[in-house]
Amino acid sequence: xxxxxxxxxxxxxxxxxxxxxxxxxxxxxxxxxxxxxxxxxxxxxxxxxxxxxxxxxxxxxxxxxxxxxxxxxxxxxxxxxxxxxxxxxxxxxxxxxxxxxxxxxxxxxxxxxxxxxxxxxxxxxxxxxxxxxxxxxxxxxxxxxxxxxxxxxx
Length: 154
Prior knowledge:
It is a single chain. By secondary structure, the chain is mainly alpha-helical. The protein has a domain at about 20-120: Arc Repressor Mutant, subunit A, CATH 1.10.10. It contains seven helices and three strands; from the N terminus they run H-H-E-H-H-E-E-H-H-H. It has helices spanning about 20-40, 45-60, 65-70, 75-85, 110-115, 120-130, 130-150; strands at about 60, 90-95, 100-105. The protein has a three-stranded antiparallel β-sheet with strand order 1-3-2. Strand 2 (about 90-95) and strand 3 (about 100-105) form a beta hairpin. The longest helix has 20 residues, at about 20-40.
């Protein structure tokens, strides 16, 4: 006689190991730990690294746009940018066109830090143990998931 797997119970859907949100949360925490180690030599936290990536890619940007790109509110972003400014890596200044708008750009020291950061993505990719194609596929799937969740109406 062949044993059949037990029927799934609705309660099984409430198990922690069945939650995609927890898998993403655990992966995020693991990434943060790896980034903490890799970024230590650069003197950056992970959120500061993301802000610098944005500025290295786009140059001078309004704080509002940085927040949009990083999905951070001003209450989180402003102190982060102040710390980067205190470290001499960015310069914040009021827009001459609109006094309410503050723009941010890398300083020469912030721009020079980019060279030292070039190996970070390779080190992170190695830490994942994934092939480049798998990383690309995973990113695409996560981007699709994010768009779906952003557009979800419950």
